[in-house]
Specification:
disordered C terminus; 37% helix; globular; 3-stranded mixed beta sheet; 12 strands; 16% strand; TIM Barrel; alpha/beta
């Protein structure tokens, strides 16, 4: 189901940009997610989303953004997609992300969009305007195989569609790359999958791949994930329980080996393993002032 709410605020701020994605301000236009990935960490109790199959739409999000952006004294990257994909299927009709990008472009703020959807191509011209400051579009890709992707990310566009979108963004001159995370133990943590993702990303114009070899497993997230393992991969749940118990995180079985394979593949293909961040221009006159001293 889809519910509308009136939000009190839209942008949350951190003191410093986060070291993984360079995000200073977090913007979630929706809560809950139609993609229904079996591993999603946002199901966890701490996020207080009672039913993750429901999507909450922040009906006044654009008005809030217009109010909040001019008050930001520090220009930093706005990140969207950490709690709910900004390009859910309903975004095609609701257009909250499209409108938000137009406001961001008007105020000349940088953006980092994290998504699993090729719907981002609809906003390519607005993103090109924002890219005069800084724009990055990162696609979450955990497998190179469409059939496996349909199992673990049943509501998301096919992996092949994400790669095709990446190629179009790169051709348009936009900064784009891959978030290779999570890597599901016993399912995706094999060298063939990792090298296939790197190779395909290179072919589609990715300039970076940010990877993390494992997944989180906490409270409601774990319960949902284990139920899906029973349905989709019979026999895997006992292996998880023996290997990880009630641990917060579940590292890939051969994480160090996979990371080495990943880094070597990226080096061969000339792909960075960290993404380039937005760097604000120094204040006018700062060079001259330094010269005085």
């Amino acid at each position: 189901m889809i519910h509308e709410v009136t939000a009190k605020t839209l942008l949350s701020s951190s003191k410093q940009p986060d070291p993984w994605f360079g995000i200073k301000y977090t913007m979630n236009l929706y809560r809950g997610c139609q993609h229904q990935c079996i591993y999603c960490d946002s199901r966890s109790e701490c996020y207080q989303i009672e039913n993750f199959a429901d999507v909450i739409v922040k009906a006044n999000a654009i008005d809030l953004l217009k109010q909040e952006l001019p008050r930001k004294r520090v220009k930093g990257t706005i990140g969207t997609g950490s709690m709910s994909d900004p390009y859910l299927p309903l975004e095609a009709a609701r257009r909250l992300t499209a409108q938000a990008l137009e406001v961001i472009a008007e105020h000349q703020f940088p953006i980092h969009a994290l998504t699993k959807s090729d719907l981002v191509l609809r906003d390519i011209e607005t993103l090109r305007v924002i890219s005069r400051v800084y724009a990055a579009i990162s696609f979450t890709i955990t497998t190179a195989d469409d059939e496996l992707g349909k199992q673990v990310e049943p509501g998301a566009p096919l992996v092949s569609r994400r790669f095709a979108a990446m190629a179009q963004l790169a051709e348009a001159g936009l900064l784009t790359g891959v978030l290779l995370m999570p890597v599901l133990p016993f399912i995706e943590d094999n060298p063939a999958n990792i090298t296939a993702i790197v190779t395909r990303a290179k072919d589609c114009g990715a300039t970076y791949i940010v990877a993390s070899f494992g997944m989180t497993l906490r409270d409601r997230q774990r319960a949902h994930y284990y139920a899906q393992l029973d349905r989709l991969f019979p026999g895997l749940r006992p292996q998880y329980e023996r290997q990880y118990g009630t641990k917060y995180s579940a590292a890939a079985r051969n994480a160090r080996q996979l990371e080495q394979i990943f880094r070597e593949a990226c080096e061969r293909h000339g792909i960075a393993t960290r993404m380039p961040f937005y760097e604000p221009a120094p204040p006018l006159g700062s060079a001259a002032q330094l010269a005085l001293f």
